[in-house]
Write a structure and sequence with these properties.
Layout: E1 2-6, H1 11-22, E2 26-31, H2 38-48, E3 53-56, H3 62-72, E4 76-79, H4 86-91, H5 93-114, E5 118-124, H6 147-164, E6 170-176, E7 178-180, H7 199-207, E8 214-217, E9 229-230, E10 232-234, H8 235-249, E11 254-260, E12 266-267, H9 268-279, E13 285-288, H10 303-309, H11 317-330
Parallel strand pairs: 1-2, 1-4, 2-3, 4-5, 5-6, 6-11, 7-10, 8-13
Antiparallel strand pairs: 9-12
Helix pairs in contact: 1-2, 1-8, 3-5, 5-6, 7-9, 7-11, 9-11
């Protein structure tokens, strides 16, 4: 299948490219490189032993996006491009609504111009907000507690309405839990710009001496050790979920929602301990006040993905931390090494 990938030079996008190309899909990447790197694409090509088309463009530039889409003529789009940090979204709400919502509308206009009826959307479990029950299933009410989560919920609604208006359209809404890890080769991984806003890339920079200690945002949550619990999923498992969703989109129409997680929760302290074991020494940490928008616990019920996408997570926390350390130790400054 011909697949246009927005944000393909980013963390999840680059790993998904490896899986798509490995399955024989023809890919075209659109990325502004605000949170991605051309070097990631070069490494993807060596890992996949294939070629890809790439264009530097902002997702909000509808004219440019339309020109690219018409020339490539995609049969499906995988939509990663967007801003993704909970804390930052609270400080920069206008930028988050602009990129994540305006960008999605721009993409749909370009898809319509190119006659593309399928899109796999990179959504988030943050759309659920505070749990009414756990684990979250896809029927759980959505009540985001952050601007980031609000933008994901709004984009989901836009895509759902778009699919409802077009009988031929297929929309797969993938609600990620917490992606971590790196490709086992150590050639591609997470390379955040500036100070990392997520746990594991920050911890990896502590391990390489770029940060003095891990900041634990709150240790007074109602969890066994007081720190937040998340459902961490290996990025390679997550990438494979996109290929499964693409296969599903080729066979159905309408909008479908899927949780993409493991169903197992780990606390911040548990992840700190696991990463310390992988590195071979105790990594320093300090407790800080809670961040606005964070919740105590989230875990996925991924039964629907197992049943309908025929996908399930196969890699565990040990695989996650080992692959992060392989990547970070070989690339202490990410793609700028």
């Amino acid at each position: 299948m011909r697949v246009l990938v927005t944000g393909g030079a980013g963390y999840i996008g680059s790993h998904t490219l490896v899986e798509l190309m490995g399955q024989g899909h023809e890919v075209c990447v659109v990325d502004s490189y605000a949170n991605g790197s051309p070097e990631a694409l070069a490494r993807v090509q060596t890992l996949s032993n294939g070629t890809l088309e790439a264009h530097e463009a902002d997702i909000r530039d509808t004219d440019r996006l339309t020109t690219i889409a018409r020339a490539f003529a995609p049969e499906a789009v995988v939509h990663f491009a967007g801003l993704k940090a909970v804390g930052e979204s609270q400080r920069q709400p206008v930028e988050y609504y602009d990129v994540n919502i305006t960008g999605t509308l721009s993409l749909l206009r370009a898809m319509e111009a190119a006659g593309c009826p399928r899109v796999i959307f990179s959504s988030s479990a943050t759309v659920y907000g505070e749990p009414v029950y756990l684990p979250y299933d896809e029927a759980h009410p959505t009540a985001p507690t952050s601007v980031y989560g609000q933008t994901k919920r709004m984009a989901e609604q836009i895509l759902t309405d778009w699919a409802a208006a077009r009988p031929e359209a297929a929309v797969m809404l993938l609600r990620y839990f917490n992606p971590v890890g790196a490709h086992p080769s150590g050639r591609i991984g997470e390379d955040p710009q500036g100070v990392p806003d997520n746990l594991m890339p920050y911890l990896a920079q502590v391990a390489t001496g770029q940060r003095p200690y891990l900041q634990i945002w709150g240790d007074d949550y109602p969890t066994p050790d007081g720190t937040g619990i998340r459902d961490y999923i290996h990025v390679v498992d997550l990438a494979r979920a996109h290929v499964a969703a693409l296969d599903r989109a080729a066979a159905v129409t309408g909008a479908e929602v899927y949780n993409i997680g493991t169903g197992r929760g780990s606390s911040v302290r548990e992840m700190l301990d696991a990463f310390s074991r992988a590195v071979g020494r105790d990594l320093p940490a300090q407790v800080m006040p809670r961040r606005p928008g964070d919740i105590a616990e989230m875990q996925a019920d991924a039964t629907k993905a197992a049943t309908q996408l025929r996908w399930k997570a196969e890699l565990d926390v040990g695989d996650m931390v080992a692959s992060i350390w392989t990547w970070q130790s070989a690339n202490p400054k990410g793609y700028r090494t």
